[in-house]
Amino acid sequence: MIKILLMAFCFLIGTFSKAQDTLSIDKFDSLVTQHHEKMKLILKSEDTLSSNEAVILVKIENTLHYGVENYIGNKELSIRIRKYQSFDSCFNIYFIRKIIHKLDATIYFGMGYYSKKYDILLGGNLTDPKSRYYIKN
Fold first, then answer.
1. Exposed, middle or buried by CB within 10 Å (0-12, 13-18, 19+), for 122?
2. Are 96 and 41 within 8 A, CB to CB?
3. Structure pTM?
4. Which of 44, 55, 95, 105 has a 20 to 30 A CA-CA distance from 112?
């Protein structure tokens, strides 16, 4: 039994071992602002969502939910939090469905969604480093 669990763990580590994208906090903020505006246009049916944009939205959302506060100080976070909350509130079930469809994602561990085609994970309880951004100070 332990051997099976160890093999499964090694498989998962191998599956999720690609390097993640590294961004400065300013570049991350710029992405959040740019894609929040894009989401608002899509909600008004004034724009469409490309696969590349869907991947970026997934990475932003995963970064916001998996520890962006670990990369910036609490004072900075309090200044930026309103922007992040605004993005997060716009990232609703409508966008999740659109992204799942666009990326051909299927249900995965921890109620997340995985796109084999784009090798990206949305949510779930497995924090895949290549499915989010690493924020450098």
1. buried
2. no
3. 0.77
4. 44
